[in-house]
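Quick illustration, no need to memorize.
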Amino acid sequence: MFQSSLRSGHSKSCGCHRKDTTSAGHLLDEIGKVYNGWTVLSFAYSDKYGAARWKCRCRCGDVHVVRGVGLRSGRSTQCRLCAARNKERHLKTGRILPRAS
């Protein structure tokens, strides 16, 4: 983005929040939504690529910062501790166990 475009008013921003915004340019409101094992508590920050990071509570109770894209795509479903526990249970029993609610 050219600085002159920002100064002249042709552009309103550099576009950093484009990935996590609506067409109106507002940050998507994820607070209170539940994605798989995550419950969104609050907005944390935007990373250096402009992707929103959200403070979320895992079903086990731990609080972590998670990328908004990972939440919405279903790629991030639980914290690493829960993933390790589920993997350990699977290795011991030889079968896939249902996720804890």
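The chain has one domain: 17-93.
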